[in-house]
Amino acid sequence: MSEVSVIVHADAGMLAQAVAARLAVRLIDAQAERGEASVVLTGGTIAAAVYRALRDSPARDAVDWGRVDVWWGDERFVPHDDPDRNELQAREALLDALPLDPARVHPMPPSDGPDGPDPEAAAARYADELSRAAKPGTAALPHFDLLLLGVGEDGHVASVFPEHPVAYEDRPVAAVRGAPKPPPVRLTLTLPAINTAEEVWLIASGTGKASAVRLALSGAGPVQVPAAGVRGVERTLWLLDRPAASEIGPRFRSLR
Ligand SMILES: O=C1O[C@H](COP(=O)(O)O)[C@@H](O)[C@H](O)[C@H]1O
């Protein structure tokens, strides 16, 4: 299990720029090592700012986007053109500007997709898509070089919510009904699936996230605070702005 490290940036703008730069480098490094790269995207406000910062950065052209697989860590189970979809937000903020191979972009199914409004069937379909991309005969999941997570004010990550049955789930993909944050029906990678990623970065901005960040970094249980249960295989990195880091002690603070 990897060590947890924390980097704190001055404000949300600096955080977004720094994460965007780091993201480009991570994909470049993975491509240098493996010939390709895979990233799991998150939804959320700060994630959208990171995507826009990467779209507007000249460094983005150093990535060979045709050899990047794009997956999602969670999705709101709404129609394909609903602005609530994490996919739509990522496409508008970044993906539409990149020369990606469409066959390597893997959105989670919408509620008007092949399984209609059946989130359990849609979750099974996504699990199947993931397992088809895994190395034959090895795992249920492909290799993830990097998995990005936002952090909810209640400590949720992806759509794994505190005290919800999904927090106990060990299948890789789950349907979520009755989510405390709208919309109530969602699809998500579960904590065991998230924790197969080589690197996981948890990104949080603003005072509203400060208490969740403190709890997650101070030994809370993963059912009570799902962010506390996140561990990348090689690296677990918290990327914060000062307001989000305002309740953690100096032991964790490396201010940049
Ligand atoms: O609903 C969701 O919320 C979280 C956090 O979003 P934020 O706007 O508070 O940063 C996000 O990470 C997740 O992907 C999304 O579905």
UniProtKB/TrEMBL annotation:
Region feature (Disordered): 99-121
CDD domains: 6PGL
Keywords: Hydrolase
Entry's Gene Ontology molecular function annotations: 6-phosphogluconolactonase activity
UniProt keyword ATP-binding present: no
Metabolic or biological pathway, per its Swiss-Prot or TrEMBL entry: Carbohydrate degradation; pentose phosphate pathway; D-ribulose 5-phosphate from D-glucose 6-phosphate (oxidative stage): step 2/3
Cross-referenced Gene3D superfamilies: 3.40.50.1360
UniProt xrefs under Pfam families: Glucosamine_iso
Documented EC number(s): 3.1.1.31
Catalytic function, reaction form: 6-phospho-D-glucono-1,5-lactone + H2O = 6-phospho-D-gluconate + H(+)
Top class in the EC scheme: hydrolase
Organism superkingdom: Bacteria
Residue span, Glucosamine/galactosamine-6-phosphate isomerase domain: 11-238
Entry's family note: Belongs to the glucosamine/galactosamine-6-phosphate isomerase family. 6-phosphogluconolactonase subfamily.
PANTHER family (alphabetical): 6-PHOSPHOGLUCONOLACTONASE
NCBIfam families for this protein: pgl (TIGR01198)
Function summary: Hydrolysis of 6-phosphogluconolactone to 6-phosphogluconate.
Protein name per its UniProtKB record: 6-phosphogluconolactonase
Species whose genome carries this gene: Planosporangium thailandense
Lineage: Bacteria, Bacillati, Actinomycetota, Actinomycetes, Micromonosporales
